[in-house]
Give the backbone structure.
Amino acid sequence: MTRDSLVDCSLYTANDADEMSRLLGDVFARRDPPAVAVGLTASAFAAFVRLFCPKADAEGLTIVARSAATGEMAGALLTEDSMAVPPDGLDRLDPKFDPIFDILGQLDAEYRAGRAMQPGESMHLFLLGVSESFAGQGVAQRLIAEALANGVRRGYRLAATEATNRTSQHVFRKQGFVERVRRSYGDHRFGGQAWFGSIAEEGGPILMDRRLLP
Ligand SMILES: CC(C)(COP(=O)(O)OP(=O)(O)OC[C@H]1O[C@@H](n2cnc3c(N)ncnc32)[C@H](O)[C@@H]1OP(=O)(O)O)[C@@H](O)C(=O)NCCC(=O)NCCS
């Protein structure tokens, strides 16, 4: 089986909610360095993903990849309009999210300063995850390419993401994204605590973007 025929990509629908929440919860709790550093569980992360599912269905920007052989979900890229209003319920999540919201919030605030954005212009590639059994076979790169192509069809002109680790940074660079803002895991403090000291070797999260051509 070639890389291209391994999975089929499609637009997220409400029927994908359970599987996508579980998959992203599992892969982030196990392998996303900041989530691992603060000790988030798979179910706490899945609860976070669930909050975004109604919006994913309504906006039509999220892509899922399923095994061509079995139909099992192999990966997902939760995507939203960059100007979308955050869903209700974020304040009821596990407080372990707070250091992550803080460091990623710093990236976003610096990036957005002085940039006027309208809904429908910029898409936010938010949560990219690929199941371990499909890792290293180009599924993440397929998901990004499909999300960008779908965004272009819908008139989006810019795509942005916060890439939290060296693998995702490599993958987004390969898809044409360039670095705009960076923070350091080693230097970051939240509530006086170095939450990300154990992952200092990952460097830090990088906000990257890419212009989209019609
Ligand atoms: C990041 C993630 C989505 C990648 O999925 P994937 O389907 O395995 O990725 P792909 O196969 O498309 O590409 C992986 C690329 O990263 C490279 N890579 C692997 N480990 C790497 C590392 N430590 N540093 C840099 N690049 C690395 C691979 O060589 C490959 O690049 P290549 O095509 O040039 O050879 C997956 O590892 C994942 O779900 N991680 C946990 C959640 C997460 O961190 N999400 C991103 C948050 S922004």
Observations:
- The pocket of coenzyme A is lined by residues 27-28, 31-32, 128-130, 135-141, 163-168, 170-171, 174 (CB under 6 Å).
